[in-house]
Automatic annotation (TrEMBL):
<dbReference type="InterPro" id="IPR011396">
    <property type="entry name" value="PT_DNA_restrict"/>
</dbReference>
<dbReference type="GO" id="GO:0004519">
    <property type="term" value="F:endonuclease activity"/>
</dbReference>
<keyword id="KW-0255">Endonuclease</keyword>
<dbReference type="InterPro" id="IPR003615">
    <property type="entry name" value="HNH_nuc"/>
</dbReference>
<dbReference type="Pfam" id="PF13391">
    <property type="entry name" value="HNH_2"/>
</dbReference>
<feature type="domain" description="HNH nuclease">
    <location>
        <begin position="180"/>
        <end position="233"/>
    </location>
</feature>
<keyword id="KW-0378">Hydrolase</keyword>
<protein>
    <submittedName>
        <fullName>HNH endonuclease</fullName>
    </submittedName>
</protein>
<keyword id="KW-0540">Nuclease</keyword>
<dbReference type="InterPro" id="IPR058813">
    <property type="entry name" value="DNA-SBD_ScoMcrA"/>
</dbReference>
<feature type="domain" description="ScoMcrA-like DNA sulfur-binding">
    <location>
        <begin position="2"/>
        <end position="149"/>
    </location>
</feature>
<dbReference type="Pfam" id="PF26340">
    <property type="entry name" value="DNA-SBD_ScoMcrA"/>
</dbReference>
Amino acid sequence: MSFVERIMDIRMWQQNGRRAPHKPLLLLYALARFQREGEGPILYSTAEKELAALIRDFGPPRAAGPHYPFDRLANDDDLWTVATRDGLPSPGDSPVKLRATGATGRFTPSVVAELRARPETLLEAVHALLDANFPESLHESICDAVGLDLHRTPYVLRRATRPRDPAFRRAVLNAYAHRCAFCDYEGRLAGVAVGLDAAHIRWFAFDGPDTLDNALCLCSLHHVLFDKGVLTLTHDHRISVTEAFAGDTPNTRAQVHALAGHPVAPPRPPAPDHLTWHHTQVFHAA
C-alpha cells in the first residue's frame, strides 16, 4: 500500500459528522518539515505551539490539543513513530510526559524511502489530505500556515473522495442571480461573474452534497470567513458573526461586523441539518 493510500486510511474519531482533522494537520505539518529540512525527527516541545495554532485555526471549535495526534498517529499503519530522547517508546498522549521525555516524532523508514524515490508523492499526499478534510477556500491558507511550497515539486495527482458535480457552481450562481448572499456583491468582467463562489454549508469533504439546500453564493471574502467560522447562517436565515473576530477599521466593520443579524433570503432554504453542522463544526461561537 502506498503512502497516499495509507494516509487516506488513517483512523480518525468521527461521530455525527463531527470534524477531527488533528492527524491530517500533523501530517501536513510533517510533510512541510520534510520538504524544508528532510527526514529528521520533530521534537514535540518545539512543534507543540505551531501544531496547537494549526488545530485552533483550522480545526473545529473546542478541538483537542496537539498531543493526541502526535502520539496516536503512531497507531496507524506504518506512517509515524514516536520515541523519547532515551530511545524508549512514546510515553502516551500526555503533553507533560511528551515534553519531559524529549519525545520526537518522525515518518517511518518506508515513508521516507517512498518520498525520496518519488518526490511527487509529497504533493500527492498534500492534495489528498486537503481534499479529504478541508474546503478548497482554505487550502492555500493551510499550506501557508504549515510552510508548504506547492511549486517546489511537481503536481501530479489530485484525489477526491467522490466526484463533484461540474454544474454545481453554475447552478448556485444562477439561483442567487450572481449576487453574494451576504453583501450583495455582483461583479462581472466581460459578462462573466468574478469574485463569486458556490460555497458549501456542510463541507464537501464531510458528505456535503452539491445541492442548492447545501449552498450559498458568496463573494470570495465572505466565503473564506464562512469557511473559517467567522460567519454563519442561523436557522431563521440571519447572519451571525462570532464575537471572537477582531477588526477595527471602518471597512472591516462594514464588511463583517455590520452583517450581524442581517437577513438572507436563499432561493431554496438551506437544510436545517447542514446549518446545524456548520454551527457546531465550523462557527466559532462564544
